[in-house]
Structure formats: C-alpha cells, structure tokens
Amino acid sequence: MQHSFSKFAKNDYARYPFLKAATKYMKMPDLKIQDLADPGLKGILRRAEERLDEAILSALVSRNPQHDADIELMSFPVAIILATATEDSFVKKRYALAEANQTYEDLKEESREKVLEFAQNFGWNLEVNSTRSIPFECSLAFVDYLRNTTPLRDKHWKLVNRILSCGKVYLSIDEAARLLKEEVQRYIEKKLEVKELPRFPPNIMEAAERIKKLKIEIIGEQEVEGFPKTIVQEAFPPCIKALYQSFSSGRHLSHIGRFTLTSFLINIGMPPEKAIELFRSFSDYSERMTRYQVEHIAGERGSRTKYTPPRCETLQTHGVCVNQDQDEMCRRVRHPLGYYRRKSRTA
C-alpha cells in the first residue's frame, strides 16, 4: 500500500528514531564517535546513558513527550555506540529488547495508517484487508509473517491457527504491531553487531563502565556473585515483605505490585511453578493467564529475557515503597534485588 505523503512528523521520529527517515530530522546525521568528546553534546550523551539505564532496569525506554525531540533523535545512535562500547552481550540484547518493547506499547496507540507506514520502513508487505468475509484489519506477506513469528512459542501464532490465503496471513493491527516488535528488536541487535571496535573517547568508556556496573548490580548479581540457594525471607526489603504478606492473604495487589513481587521471587530463585501456585488464593485467578504472565517474567516465553523488579525510584512513584525512612539499608540501595543481596549475607 503506497501513501502519497508521510503521516509521520518530527515528534513521531523522536519516538521511533531507528526509522530510515528519522535521519533527515537529525541535526548531526553524520555524527562521528570522536565528536562525542565535545562537551556541547553532553545532554545527548546523558540521554543515551539514560536509555541504557532504563533498558537494564525495566526493559523499556521511556517516551516522555516533554523530552526534546532533537535530543531524542540523536541519543538513539549514541546509545548504540555506548552499548557497543560495553562489549557486553547482555547489555546489547537488553537494549534492543527494551526499544522493541516500548515500540510495541507505542504502536498499539497509533492509527492503522501509521502502523502501515511504520511497516513499510522495514519493507513489509502489510496491507489493509479489503476482503469482507475475512474478519481481520490487514494482511501480511507470508515470508514477513514467518520471519517474525519464529521466536514466538504461543500456539496463537502457529500457521495452522491463522487464516492464510494467496500467500498472505490475516492479522489485527495489534497483532501486526506485536510482530513489528520482533522486527525492531532484530534490527537493533544487528546494528549492535560490530566485528572491529573503534577507539572510543574516554568519556564514552567511562559511561560504558558505569553501565556494566549497573548491569552487575541489578541484573547479574545472581550470576556473578550468587544468591543463596535457599530463599531468605528475612532478607526481603520492606516493600517486598508488604507485598508478600498481602499476596499470602489473598488481598488485592495492583498490577505493578504483582509484577514487582513475581519478578523479585523469580530472580532470587523461586521456580515459576511455585510462583504460579501462590496466585491461587486470588479471586481473579486464571491458570492460563497466570502461567503465561509468570513464565513471561521468568524468560520462558516470548523473547526469553528474564525481567527484574522496578527500581526503588519507580516503586516510590507508584506507592509500592514502604518504611524507607525506618530502614537504614533501604536508604543506601536503589533496587530491591540489591537490598536482598546485601541483607542475605548477614541474615
């Protein structure tokens, strides 16, 4: 489907800075790595670091409409450089996943026309469905469908469960957006594949080292330093204790409360099956939905990336943080897993 004019403006490209046409809005489309030593680009570098921090901490990259569009556009290629400089496969994969996750969340709010134009950027043959007898909004070329459903295990995506006609698979717009997430993730991962690393300026190397330390503190401590083989409830931070008590008594938990507790328990070694069992006391318990959500958090579905709890700052914003002023260790850490790791050494 061809469009006579683009439906994307500069602010759209600030949300999707990896699209081909985004370069024409960049003030420095030919940015060189050595240019990043310029103090005048400090704001762009700071936002690039923030993109990677957010990826590590929450597997998302925020899209704040208050952010400067020029900085958003330029911070993406700088974040690619920064992720490459870490030489850390987890950081690179996590960043690609985070940008893709956020893209999917944004595309779900876009018009059908914008999703179609977005798909064109990747050479997709995605068209509006004009066959009235088929109850789907669009159709996608079989090869595009197959390429992007390969990592997806849910039976929903198997061809036997889809309508396939004349080399086209029929989809809803939301399903198309979900598959575009896979395309974006793969595209960014490819950009991060650098066989021969260039010489990075000192400020880039310093930022890369800080990002790797954050990764070890938040994501990799269970692999690098090791959590205890048994779960130590005495080492739970106050917020997790409060959530766990509510959880055990079947009291209602907010979405972020459920996600925080589940991801925390999974990351300290609780088997997904045990976490699923804990949800049975809830009045809205659904075996199928609970299993899907827990296994997704555990990295056993979808992208196979294990999610971690939100950082303390995010939990404070959502009212999940409790008793911080009464717990000295709470004031010294910025993530529930960091608290548990320290406390479990002495518990």
Structural features, described:
- This protein has 347 residues and is mostly helical.
- The protein has 3 domains: 10-106 and 188-218, no CATH class; 109-179, no CATH class; 224-344, DNA Cyclobutane Dipyrimidine Photolyase, subunit A, domain 3, CATH 1.10.579.10.
- Helix content is 51%, strand content 4%.
- The chain contains 15 helices and 4 strands.
- The protein has helices at 10-15, 42-58, 69-86, 89-107, 112-121, 142-149, 173-191, 202-218, 221-226, 238-248, 255-267, 272-278, 287-297, 312-317, 336-344, and strands spanning 126-128, 138-141, 164-165, 168-171.
- Strands 1-2-4-3 form a 4-stranded antiparallel β-sheet.
- A hairpin with a 2-residue loop joins strand 3 (164-165) and strand 4 (168-171).
- Helix 2 (42-58) runs parallel beside helix 8 (202-218) and helix 4 packs antiparallel against helix 7 (173-191).
- The longest helix is centred in the first third of the chain and has 19 residues, at 89-107.
- The radius of gyration is 22 Å and the shape is globular.
- The N and C termini lie far apart (63 Å).
